[in-house]
Amino acid sequence: MAYMKKHLTLVIKSALVLLVSAVLLSACVSQKKIKYLQLIQEKDTTAFNANKRDADYKIQIKDNLYIRVFALDEKAFFFFNKQSGASSFNDFANDASIYLNSYSVNADGNIDFPIVGKVYVRDLTVDQVKAILQKHISEYLKETTVVVKMVNFRVTLVGELFRPGEFTIYKDDLNVFEAISLAGDMTEYANRGRVALIRQVNGGSQVHYLDLTSEKVLSSAYFYLQPNDIIYVSPLGYKRWGLGSTFPWAIVLSSITTALLLINYIKN
């Protein structure tokens, strides 16, 4: 009888040790897997990574451009600009107003602008479009300023992020870290070493993988995002164990407590 008790106690202890070890080892995520921009040499305190950004985004068919012509003459302002309300600044109020007051690039790559007429903008940068419009409008009015912005600069972030979703950007450029910050950063189970960037190109989509744990990402041609880019963050292998916030820790702790009580009962 004593032998059986001793053997049973040993079996329970072994199972308990295996359970605790498995939980602890599986729940741990290496710091190396969650740190961004790891230097090639850990002793380095500074690093320079060139990123020339040779090519700005080229406007494509179905893009929307927000164009405003500012002039000292109020009549000229209203003549050149679409208006959605009584005030000349009402069209800045919300996304819907901005979209409705924008110019869509048609299938031929043109926009139709007041007085100027059709302007070919496909494969041009925003700055190039601005320069073309400024030249044309200056033929009719002096002391004018043309403002051109992309309306449809949206990025989508999905996967292991705290707040995934689609985000509208109100600036000329956005890098991958800025985009991730919009989604509340990555979770602890995100695979930072292989982040997929999906970009629309002529005839389909391209997928590029970025290693955000390496400082070399700062020099990548895909560090800066373009309109309609999609970022997908896949989970690490640890995720399959379900050891995140949804893991039934109460059941595990209850099992451990029961095992300890059983061992104590057998001994006594």
Mean pLDDT: 77
Number of strands: 10
Task: Provide the succession of SSEs.
Answer: HHEHHEEEHEEEHEEEH
- Structurally, the number of domains stands at 3
CATH architecture of the largest domain: Roll
**CATH homology superfamily name of the largest domain:** Outer membrane lipoprotein wza domain like
Number of helices: 7
Uncertain parts = 84-89
Please compute the radius of gyration using only Cα atoms.
29 Å
Strand content: 15-25%
CATH fold topology of the largest domain? Outer membrane lipoprotein wza fold like
Structural class: alpha+beta
CATH domain class of the largest domain = Alpha Beta
Placed side by side, the strands forming the largest sheet appear as 7-6-10-8-9
| Spatial shape | elongated
Span from first to last CA? 13 Å
**Helix coverage percent of residues?**
25-40%
Main sheet record: 5 strands, mixed
What would the keywords be for this entry?
wza like fold, Outer membrane lipoprotein wza fold like, about 20% strand, alpha+beta
